Protein 1
Amino acid sequence: MSKQQNEEVVENQPQEVVESTENERSEAAATEPSTTEAQVEADDGLEVLRKRIQELEAENSELKDQYLRKSADFDNFRKRMFREKEESVKYANTNLLSDIINIIDDFERAIKSSQESKDFDMFHSGIELIEKQFTGMLERNWGLKRFESEGEPFDPQKHEAINMEEREGLQDQTVLEDYQKGYMLHDRVLRHSKVKVGVPKAAPSGNSDDNDQNQNKE
């Protein structure tokens, strides 16, 4: 169909059809730039996402590195604390042993003196003095105190009864003899004293008195 014939066809078409065709062409022409802009915007969005992903990967790598350093620091700290704890336990009695060393020196001097003089009384006096110094040092420096029990009321919190004996004149259970001394560490019993306990003697029963009287009558 020639150009002239097309123009004739268009001229012969109704006015509404011609206008509709022109509108479709205009819309198609207007849609092409919009499609291009949308594609550009999509590309820009992808670029932003790529940059954000790179930033997150870098941040994740940095956080991982910080975590590894913190983990290594904590592991070193734990090992150091464990080592210091071991040393603390190992040398916890340093001060006590330093005090005991001085007492050992006193014993060595007493033994040496007794070997030279052969004086038993002097040796005995020296041992007594050392014993007083030793117990005094333990009480003064470490809160270890020896307590006396003989003549005291029996107290199961402090005393361990090894033997018991009925005794006249007693109102309550009383410690008669101290077999082994007890010790207090500050306000706590470190070792119970081993004692002999006196208990009030039981009064004779009425039946025994009646039997004795009957026997006397016979």
Protein 2
Amino acid sequence: MKKIILFLGLSMFIWSCEKAAKLENDEYLVFGKFNGFCASNCTTLFKIEGGKLYADDMDRYLPGDDLVFESDPLPTDKYEEALKLYQDIPDKLKETTEMSFGCPGCVDQDIILLRYFDGADKKEWQVDSDIESNPEYLQDYAAEVLEVIEKLNN
């Protein structure tokens, strides 16, 4: 009897973890980087939505602009790579009222853009690409975002 209860409990735990790792309904995550001071394509953004990953269809982005993405999704292996970012969003980031971290763009470097919608609330953050300039809880995640962008571009 104990083995059955242990098995059922473990199964429910695993099932709940798997469900939490997937985007549901209208949830999405936009991530990437932009820079307003460059000569060519200054924007690299991606959107995870509906079990697919989309690349931006823009050369430039400035805060307040509408985000435009390609209509055709990227391959599944790239989606799987990007899904980690959705799964790894720090809870503290989701809970903060701050919208800017470090000094994004102050020394003409890329700005990390994150836009998150959990089905109820939309949040947007600009994060300094100088990782050490960000709060400690955000540094590993910001570095992960930049790593994933690099992998998706190759």
Protein 3
Amino acid sequence: MIDLDFGLKGKVAVVTGGSSGIGAAIAEAYAAKGADVAVLDLVLAPDEERIAALGTTSAGFACDVTDETSAEMAITRVHERYGHIDVLVNSAGIVRLAPAEELSLAAWNTTLAVNLTGAFLLSRAVGRIMLAQGHGKVINMASQAASVALPEHAAYCASKFGLIGLTKVLASEWAGRGSPPTPSARRWCSPSWDARHGTTPRAKN
């Protein structure tokens, strides 16, 4: 039986894409359990009140998950503020829909950059901290698109199939060292990242 009354007081959870949509719901769930939540997102200003509602010990950190320097700096700031990181949830994600023959290279590259490279960069940065401290959990948000082919989802499916592969490799390398990554499947939904950052899900350029 799962104990749903567990608490997370004193734990620090980092949630990418955490200022809106699924990421915000995840951040709120961790905060409700007593965790200090570090919300990482590209744009924080529209959701400052939502982040503040997580509690006085939670905070937002600007981060472009596709940029190595931005990812490293954001995690450094989180670690400096809290002194440790117990959970990383890679929730930032986008979707670009188009038939494969019409999908642009830019749409392909952007999708993989956010959904796969972003998860790698954050996992690597946080993983180093977790391995040094001897404990931690990395949760990568996958999808049914990580196991089945969906029409017009060439880039998205590729990114999520890749994310499962990345998670398995990290688990094989880190599980015995205190930081086992875990994939989390979710059914399809349109990530809110697109609308918030001036892009549309069905993009051909």
